[in-house]
Write a structure and sequence with these properties.
heterodimer, A: 116 residues, seven-stranded mixed sheet, four-stranded antiparallel sheet, 0% helix, globular
């Protein structure tokens, strides 16, 4: 594909339901990042993958949040037992390098999650 | 604590006027700083990074370690510059901390 693809673009779910957000990075990109962006705020780091290895998950707010990238390509961010405070834009980005310098991150369009 | 501060949520200037979007950071290590931009209905994208020392779309940003700042400047604003601008600090090799963003509105 031409860029990072995220699906769905919009998701409305009821409180207590589980949701899975998908990210399809640019082909061949080694690094994959998940961010969460609340209204009026900048993106907040959630987790980072180097190929299939989740090298940093320090930004995941609690154990209801998890992410995987089993084959080093597509990644899924899962939120279990959603709460209203989980409502936000969830952004995925990928880069060709392994998180070092001179590695531009390309962002997807984001998934707007609304928990009602 | 690692932090990026953008003190202005909204900046409105007239076309042709100079513009400066402020960014201050807090980080004990050697900082790697970026400016990202999001135009209406488009993706968040990289505008420039301090290590490249480049000018993109007429914008420049200089890292001032003494003042811990990385302000974004353009001498003559254009209407197409209207967008949301985020200053970002890269830490630990891959973790990036973003500021809250400044919406720039360039009036005709």
């Amino acid at each position: 594909g031409a860029g990072v693809s995220q699906s769905p673009r919009y998701k409305v779910t009821k409180r207590g339901q589980d949701v899975a957000l998908r990210c399809d990075p640019i082909s061949g990109h080694v690094s994959l990042y998940w961010y969460r962006q609340a209204l009026g705020q900048g993106p907040e780091f959630l987790t980072y993958f180097n190929y299939e290895a989740q090298q940093d998950k320090s930004g995941l707010p609690n154990d209801r949040f998890s992410a995987e990238r089993p084959e080093g390509s597509i990644s899924t961010l899962t939120i279990q037992r959603t709460e209203q405070r989980d409502s936000a834009m969830y952004r995925c980005a990928s880069s060709a390098g392994q998180g070092g310098t001179n590695t531009e991150a390309f962002f997807g369009q984001g998934t707007r999650l609304t928990v009602v | 604590a690692q932090r990026v501060t953008q003190p202005e949520k909204l900046l409105s200037v007239f076309k042709g006027a100079p513009v400066e979007l402020k960014c201050n950071y807090s980080y004990s290590g050697s900082p790697e700083l970026f400016w990202y931009v999001q135009y209406s209905r488009q993706r968040l994208q990289l505008l420039l990074r301090h290590i490249s020392r480049e000018s993109i779309k007429g914008f420049t940003a200089d890292l001032n370690k003494g003042e811990t700042s990385f302000h974004l400047k353009k001498p003559f604003a254009q209407e197409e510059d209207s967008a949301m601008y985020y200053c970002a600090l890269k830490t630990g090799g891959f973790k990036t901390i973003f500021g809250a963003g400044t919406r720039l509105f360039v009036k005709a």
